[in-house]
């Protein structure tokens, strides 16, 4: 990272702090208009440094590792596909997956923040799914928190010498689940229940999301493994370029 | 059939079973969105009707809800864009591997 990029990233962290703190937060996609304005602004503020880091990272990828652009496009397209499929679950309701695990594993969580946001903006504007006001909160859960967990778990599995496919599976699955935990927490923060406050409310929201999401998280894990297997067979040079091949070898 | 191909088929079968099984296990269920279930929970916890303070931009322009069929069209467009790009990518990569001779092989 060069000097200018560092400075831009630092100022975005500061900006985020300035915008986040005065909101005084005490206390799946969240629908449009369902989160009080204060919370929308706070979650949006938290996203700023991740967006900045993502733009910096993608710019560098584009200028230094041109071959990886195809993979980046495919990882973004994977989010498009996966998050558009509403799949029935054993709980009797439908939900969709996030798809951001793949890009986090391949390119790091910063890139996922950008790719996920593109999809969320598309859904918020075209599909009235999620929303413009809740974009910050949804970005934080689906495009930042989930990918961070996915990336962390993948790294951890690598350290522990878990086989590549199992690490990819675990990373994508737990990243997906974590996204919905964060969503539940975000709703609980905004709507603490009368008895028990935020924690009790979080448990109730989790009760809505978790049973639905569990099988879907497994599906997301499997699909991510399939894509990675495909890339391993046909995209060796690209994977080597982004440092994915060496790591597990 | 190679071992990889078998793994791929087995995993695909698993995905299909996981996705379709709930329809048979819960024939009476409604299969609404869990986002909507979340909104209902908001009303339950607050103990009363919740009026969203902002309506989606598209609904403001249309002056009403997006028709269900059109919504599914737009979801298909989203899926289509994604599938298109992924297929293009894999098409390119597979052909590259197939047609690059060993000595001219991409590094």
Question: What would you say this structure looks like, in words?
Answer:
The complex is a heterodimer of chains A (249) and B (107). With 249 residues, chain A is mostly helical. Chain A has one domain: Arp2/3 complex 21 kDa subunit ARPC3, CATH 1.10.1760.20. Chain A has ten helices and two strands, in the order αααββααααααα. Chain A is globular, with a radius of gyration of 18 Å. The two termini of chain A are 26 Å apart. The radius of gyration of chain B is 23 Å and the shape is flat. Chain B has two domains: 53 residues, no CATH class; 44 residues. Helices cover 69% and strands 2% of the residues of chain B. The mean pLDDT of chain B is 79. The longest helix of chain B has 32 residues. Chain B has four helices and one strand, in the order αβααα. Chain B is mostly helical and 107 residues long. Classes of the chains: A mainly alpha (249), B mainly alpha (107). The interface between A and B is large, with 73 and 65 residues.
Mean pLDDT of chain A: 86
Poorly predicted regions of chain A: 22-27
How big is the Rg of chain A?
Answer: 18 Å
- Shape annotation of chain B: flat
Give the topology.
The complex is a heterodimer of chains A (249) and B (107).
Chain A: H1 3-20, H2 37-64, H3 68-84, E1 86-88, E2 93-96, H4 100-107, H5 109-126, H6 135-159, H7 164-190, H8 197-234, H9 236-241, H10 244-248
Antiparallel strand pairs in A: 1-2
Chain B: H1 3-25, E1 32-33, H2 34-46, H3 57-62, H4 68-99
Quickly describe the structure.
Chain A is mainly alpha-helical. Chain A has helices at 3-20, 37-64, 68-84, 100-107, 109-126, 135-159, 164-190, 197-234, 236-241, 244-248; strands at residues 86-88, 93-96. In chain A, α4 packs across α6 (135-159).
């Amino acid at each position: 990272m060069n000097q200018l990029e560092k400075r831009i990233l630092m100022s975005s962290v500061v900006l985020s702090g300035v915008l986040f703190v005065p909101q005084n937060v005490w206390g799946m996609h969240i629908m449009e208009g369902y989160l009080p304005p204060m919370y929308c602004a706070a979650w949006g503020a938290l996203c700023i440094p991740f967006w900045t880091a993502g733009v910096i990272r993608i710019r560098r990828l584009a200028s230094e590792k041109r071959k990886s652009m195809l993979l980046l496009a495919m990882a973004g397209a994977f989010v498009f596909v996966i998050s558009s499929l509403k799949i029935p679950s054993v709980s009797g309701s439908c939900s969709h997956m996030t798809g951001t695990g793949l890009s986090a594993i391949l390119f790091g969580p910063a890139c996922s923040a950008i790719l996920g946001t593109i999809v969320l903006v598309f859904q918020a504007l075209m599909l009235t799914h999620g929303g413009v006001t809740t974009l910050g909160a949804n970005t934080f859960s689906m495009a930042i928190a989930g990918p961070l967990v996915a990336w962390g778990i993948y790294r951890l599995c690598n350290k522990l010498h878990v086989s590549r496919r199992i690490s990819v599976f675990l990373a994508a699955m737990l990243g997906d689940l974590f996204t919905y935990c964060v969503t539940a927490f975000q709703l609980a923060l905004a709507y603490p229940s009368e008895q028990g406050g935020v924690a009790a409310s979080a448990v109730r929201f989790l009760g809505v999301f978790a049973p639905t999401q569990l099988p879907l998280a497994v599906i997301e894990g499997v699909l991510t493994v399939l894509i990675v297997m495909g890339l391993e067979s046909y995209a060796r040079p690209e994977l080597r370029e982004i440092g994915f091949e060496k790591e597990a070898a | 059939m190679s071992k990889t191909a078998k793994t791929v088929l087995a995993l695909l079968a698993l995905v299909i079973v996981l996705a379709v099984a709930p329809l048979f296990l819960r024939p009476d269920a409604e299969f609404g969105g869990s986002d909507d279930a979340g909104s209902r929970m908001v009303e339950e916890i607050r103990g009363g009707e919740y009026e969203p303070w902002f309506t989606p931009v598209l609904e403001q322009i249309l002056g009403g809800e997006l028709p269900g069929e059109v919504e599914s069209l737009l979801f298909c467009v989203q899926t289509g864009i994604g599938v298109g790009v992924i297929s293009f990518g894999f098409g390119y990569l597979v052909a590259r591997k197939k047609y690059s001779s060993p000595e001219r092989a991409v590094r």
